[in-house]
């Protein structure tokens, strides 16, 4: 809780700092820890407290040019206000720009075999010129297209900060970024915060007060932080208990513990060396039901798996 709470407080302070000065803050953490989920929850809960009146969220996944990125930033910008009048006005503006982009045709200029769409460029430029004093979240930096150079992305972020007075939040998995990012990081980012604890995020996903203590015990002893892991366990668990009437609490307890172990086996499977061709391996459920602690990225997992004889 302490980590998510401290990041909440830091983000709120940064995003409400001097309105005449931009800022770039990175939000990083291990793969699957829930950085995007954390940010979206933060914005949903704190939007009314934010100093900037405009906000845009953009994932770099699928964006293959700098102009496309500029266009997405502009078209995704919305009012942070929950006032219905502001929201309606904002919707009309975005609808108009989208209509113009899709329907107004300005002839292309042909030059040495290269077609430049004047219409698209003019509209993108006009839209982007309106972007200022905005909170902008740029997600999935490590999933960017190969056609989109990290140098250009960093240059645009720097421009948004220094020329547009924007507060930019960049969500990334720092270990998966390339060397170019490390080169530009110090020049562009004012600070980077690390999300290391995420049980408060998991708790909102699980939404099950009856079983939450089992999830917490598992989380604390095995340090499994992958959000998708818990989403799958939750889905499997609910499917089972909804198909059987009048299950006792002890039965539900046993079902959930078993599911956590089965899903853990699936999660760490690529790290387990198997001698047989079918890549099958077996577990001692009696040993694992107590959630004996170990680090799944550590070599000790191999010793644990090798010591087990059966599963169910």
Automatic annotation (TrEMBL):
<dbReference type="Pfam" id="PF07693">
    <property type="entry name" value="KAP_NTPase"/>
</dbReference>
<protein>
    <submittedName>
        <fullName>KAP family NTPase</fullName>
    </submittedName>
</protein>
<dbReference type="InterPro" id="IPR011646">
    <property type="entry name" value="KAP_P-loop"/>
</dbReference>
<dbReference type="InterPro" id="IPR027417">
    <property type="entry name" value="P-loop_NTPase"/>
</dbReference>
<feature type="domain" description="KAP NTPase">
    <location>
        <begin position="7"/>
        <end position="206"/>
    </location>
</feature>
């Amino acid at each position: 809780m302490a980590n998510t709470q401290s990041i909440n407080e830091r983000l709120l302070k940064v995003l409400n700092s001097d309105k005449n000065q931009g800022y770039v803050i990175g939000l990083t953490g291990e793969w699957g820890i829930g950085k995007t989920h954390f940010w979206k929850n933060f914005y949903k809960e704190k939007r009314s407290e934010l100093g900037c009146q405009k906000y845009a969220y953009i994932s770099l996944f699928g964006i293959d040019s700098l102009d496309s990125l500029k266009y997405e930033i502009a078209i995704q910008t919305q009012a942070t206000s929950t006032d219905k009048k502001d929201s309606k006005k904002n919707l009309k503006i975005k609808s108009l720009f989208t209509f113009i982009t899709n329907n107004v045709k300005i002839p292309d200029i042909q030059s040495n075999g290269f077609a430049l769409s004047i219409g698209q460029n003019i509209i993108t430029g006009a839209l982007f010129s309106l972007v200022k004093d905005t909170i902008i979240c740029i997600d999935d930096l490590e999933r960017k297209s190969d056609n989109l150079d990290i140098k250009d992305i960093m240059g645009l972020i720097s421009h948004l900060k220094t020329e547009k007075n924007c507060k930019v939040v960049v969500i990334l998995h720092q270990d998966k970024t390339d060397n170019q990012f490390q080169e530009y990081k110090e020049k562009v980012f004012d600070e980077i915060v690390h999300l290391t604890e995420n049980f408060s995020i998991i708790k909102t996903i699980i939404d099950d007060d009856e079983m939450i203590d089992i999830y917490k015990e598992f989380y604390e002893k095995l340090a499994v932080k992958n959000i998708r892991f818990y989403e799958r366990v939750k889905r499997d668990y609910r499917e089972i208990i909804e198909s059987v009437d009048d299950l006792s609490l002890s039965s539900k307890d046993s079902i959930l513990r078993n599911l956590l172990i089965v899903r853990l086996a699936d999660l760490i499977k690529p790290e387990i060396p198997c001698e047989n061709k079918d890549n099958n391996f077996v577990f001692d459920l009696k040993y694992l039901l107590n959630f004996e602690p170990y680090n799944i990225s550590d070599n000790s997992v191999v010793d644990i798996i090798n010591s087990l004889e059966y599963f169910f």
